[in-house]
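Local shape tokens:
==================
===
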Amino acid sequence: MKKIWKLTLSSVIGSVIIVGTVWAQPNLQLFINGQGQAPESLKLKVENGVTMVSLRSIIENLKGDILFDENKNSINVVLPDSTNLLNQVQSLERDLQPITAEGALQTWIRGIQDRSGALQYAVFSPDLRAKTKKKFDENFWVTGGSSPHMGKVENIVTKNINDTTVQFTFDYPLVEKSGTIGVGKAVITVQKMKKEYKDGWFITNIKMKDPEDTGIMIGAEKL
């Protein structure tokens, strides 16, 4: 008796078989969320006008697993629970939402010092997020560099632009193992706005004397 295979998907994967011959086979590429995948590892090929990819390879690239149940004669594809991870991130961002302009600034500074793109992004305005998310993704949410890094920030000058906008200007030491090797300068604009029915303060603009003085800096313009 011929076996019948049943494929059970625990999450939406996207197109595994793509019909059509628009792309030439030698240059065929597959992208997942904008990230190119290696055709060799995915066994990507075209046969009779149908583009095919190895299911096991694509699932493993997504950090998932394939489980074979011989008793049920089925394959279960298990992908990471992206919904729960998204809820977790959103919960952390709500907890980090600054209730003061200075709180937004200090969170951003900590994100720079800790090389945490996620911490910086958490206090970005919606517009600044839209401009920078792709860059954070490309750098795996790690910013800065090994040396130098932003040292302790002191003597912050505060300027109230209006009731909902505050501008902070400060110098910061550029520090490496041997000590301070220079001084950087930044001007950060923070605005009060409503997010998810709650008022908060978010960074709308970042200007720096040298946006690359601490390595990878995302979202900053030259002062």
In short: The chain has two domains: 6-80, 86-222. Residues 50 and 97 are 48 Å apart (CA to CA). Confidence is low (pLDDT under 50) at residues 1-24. Residues 86-222 form a domain with the Nuclear Transport Factor 2; Chain: A, fold (CATH 3.10.450.50).
